[in-house]
Protein 1
Amino acid sequence: MSRKRVAVLISGRGSNMTALIAAAKAADYPAEIVGVISNRLDAAGLKYAASAGIATVTLDHTTFGKDREGFERTLHHELQSHQVDIVCLAGFMRLLTPWFVQQWAGRMLNIHPSLLPSFKGLHTHESAIRAGVKIHGATVHFVIPEMDSGPIVAQVAVPVLDSDTPDALASRVLVAEHRLYPLALRLVAEDRTRIVDGRCHIVGVATAEQALVVPDG
Ligand code: GRF
């Protein structure tokens, strides 16, 4: 089996990146993390990635000023030079232009901390509590030009408790995200996803567990 070459794009903490690195250590995992790219010099995730022996690149978007395309062309060049097959956005806080998204169409994933299409954008946990939903969660989806949209690969459900604060809910969702992203990347790296009418079908899906992670107990 040839493993897919994956780059993870981060802007901060990098806990999802860490989960992907951990998953990719397994000999039977279909992807390897070949690089971590941050648009922020101070992203904590960079240190962890370097200590795990993974190539790191910092591309400070502020040095490009308003030249969003210049930043993205440099990013695209970096990804190509590492012969990347799949890009995983993991807390990467930059909006990407349609040009960049098109370069990586069907090969770029994002993780968002809500059950999309509910609660796009920031402050998802606060919004979920305010809306009074009983189930919240996270989504991994293919990236399209529209923010927090695109064919959904997999989701994880997390119950909302009456006593929840946004922080308490966020930390339970984050633990669930760390299960979800490796599972979703596995499906894509094994070439088991097909986009049909804007939806992501999973080839040979045997159990709901492969597209939906439900809480234990
Ligand atoms: C996660 O909640 C992710 O869903 C969102 O940004 C956060 C990144 O956290 N897109 P981390 O950097 O992976 O710890």
Note: DSSP finds six helices and ten strands in the chain.
Protein 2
Amino acid sequence: MSKRPVKQVDLSSEFSLINALIIKSGLTGIVIAGPRFKRKKLTSLDLLLLHKNQSHSKSHLLDEIDFTGLVSQPAVFQKIAEEGVFGGETDVITISGPQKLYYSVFPVMVFSTLRLIALVFDQEREIKEEDRYLISSSLKLISKQLELKDEADDLKIDKIRYTRLFESAPEAIAMLDKNNQILDVNPEFEQLFLYKKAAILGKKLDELIAPANLIPEAMQLTKINWEGGRVAVETQRMRHDGKLIDVSVLGVPFVQGNGHLCIYGIYRDITARKNSEKQELRRLAFIEFISRLSSDLINMDVREIDQTISSGLETVARVYSAERAYLMELSDAGDLIKITHEWTADPRFSHRERQPDIYLSDLPEYFRKLLAGQMLYFHRVDIGNEEDTKALGFFFDLLDIESMVNIPLCVDNRFSNFIAFDTFSRPVFWDDQALNSFKLTGQILVNALERKHRELAFQDALHKAEASDKLKSAFLAGISHEVRTPMNHILGFIEVMDDPYLGQSEKDEYLAIMKSSGNHLLRLIDDVIELALIDSGQVIVNNTPCDICRVLESLLVEFEGLKSELNRNSVKLILTIPGECRQMIIKTDEIRLRQILWNLLSNAIKFTPEGEVGFGLSLQGFNRIEFYVSDTGIGIDETDLPVIFERFRKVENRVSRKFGGAGLGLSISQGLASLFGNSIKVLSEMGTGSVFSFSVPYSLYSADSGKKLKINGFAHKFYWEERSILMVEDDPVNMKFLTVLLLNTGANLLYASNGKEALELLEENKVDLVLIDMKMPVMDGYEATREIKRKYPRLPVIAQTAYAIKSDEMECLAAGCDDYIAKPIDKNKLYSKIQELLFPLKS
Ligand code: ADP
């Protein structure tokens, strides 16, 4: 028997029916055959049912017929077909095939999709009309049954095919029911949108993956599908993690096997393509922008350049998703980096507001590389991995840096500036195209800056040349006068030296005068040369380690010796060195520093007939040392103050100037002080005395770097492990900034977001210093400070306010604050203010 799928069809009820029929009509047997399934052409038949009437005496005859042989011979059925049997309902023919049939065979045909044939055997008589009808009906039933089965199989196969296709499709597919709810999604969908299928079945697709602003569009597309239309669009959808992706969407309505309509949403991730399109667009936009920018910068008035630079920084930063962009330059003294131009996406994260300059000594290795021309590009994750990036960690925390690129720029093959881009909210990875664009922008901007500097320098030089022309005449007039006076002395006395009546003692006296005049001339020439060297920029600061107290003490000894020479024995010399400055070794130009102090001291003694001359030093903030020379001498009239630094300008009615003094000492000193980045200031009152002061940069020299405390590789000079500082600040960004700064000192930190909280914290904690913001909700800094000072009068309070306005400062001090710092907070200033209050210096 054939093993066709038909066997799986349950034909038991049909079998019983046929059985009953055969018995009832006394037929010998019946064979039912049908075409092979799935064949379009009828070439052979499957034997579906073979039935023998067991009660019939002749039934054994059926056994002799090879039905399988019979039904597999198309010729037999071909004949049946040719004779039109298939066309009719029923018919009777006698067939003769390879078998000799002894029985009448009545094929009963059913014309339907499955053309079945029943061969009814009977030897003796014709089949009754009624039996034929019954057989025909049974065949129809069987046929129907098979047909149904066939359809069910088709469906099953379709379903398997569909499932395979669905599961393995390279596109993300979602199937929606009539409520737009998800019926099914394929693995690609799960992968693309990062959802687990089980978690999203039954959810509304549009609400799930369309970003809020695109939900109406998504719903419109779905609507078109329900109306029978197809949609194909490129849009954006959102993944489970919130990330937007570019997708192509194909929406098609589809009739399911059960006749229900559903929708297929087919999504393809086109992010990569869109990105490259965007990149190309960005490249074109950038090229257009940069060519416009460079031509603008070349042609514009130099006074407008700064504004254009800032907007140029903004455009480039936005194109490449940077959140801050800035230009920096090295200070004249070469010790710090200053931000000159900045753009930031959020002003709260402005570097310029938080840390406008950074000392090279804070990040020596980093700046060494930059100054050597190396581009530096870091992400937060890189920090601390390599030895020399550890110190950077502090600044990444302090300034909220996630990604940062810093590019050195050159003008005429000389380092001139840095351009830097960074982000504070998320890491961004810039490709070579972005980095090249940054560099190109930087180069164009510094070229413009260079043009500005040159033009301004040229204008300045022009003014100076005009002024110096006048100055030169005055200078020549001055110098000729100053040379003439001692020269006259010398020549005059040479004349009288020839006098034969001149006694030895007189000769000695005249020789002494000539010698003094000669020395005077020599000093004058030295001073003039010195001034010329300063003017022409040939005097440079040469920093070496210098024991500053030793220098001052040696000056004291020297001037104690010179006092009598200057006829100032009654003048008292007083040197004051504060405790914290003793044994301080700094890096500075000792020779130039000494020269300024020498000039000031010699003037002080010269113009102080009796009384005191004091000198000394003090720390000025964190990074400068101030020197002063004071006297209780004749003083300078207010109207004369502006001119004393001018060349050859001396105040009239001066005391006798035995001690050199062509009126160049202060000019030279002022020139030297400017090399230290500062000018000499003077306070004076006629008859009371004068105070001259100036400052030099303070960079602590330590041969033993182990003396410095290192946290995270960052060397710093303050360690307040044992101290508790209460920070009162309502702005979280600012609070974080302060936290990073102060954590670096090892201090124990307490936080309060308003004055009321601060007072509560003070009740329960031992606090050594309060750093308080003045503008806060609930209880502001003024009220809180008054209350703090009432309860804890000795607890130091430092106020911080937004603007450096004198009246603010007064108000803070009136409220009881011990000190005051204006925002933007300079970290070094803050450190030294806290240091001063935590450890008051006794001078
Ligand atoms: P010089 O001392 O050679 O005259 P300086 O340039 O040193 O020239 O000083 C210029 C002038 O400033 C002096 O001539 C003097 O009139 C005034 N001056 C400088 N130092 C003092 C001082 N300590 N007290 C009063 N006058 C001073």
Note: Residues 603-604, 607, 631, 633-636, 644, 650-651, 654, 657, 661-667, 690 surround adenosine-5'-diphosphate (CB under 6 Å).
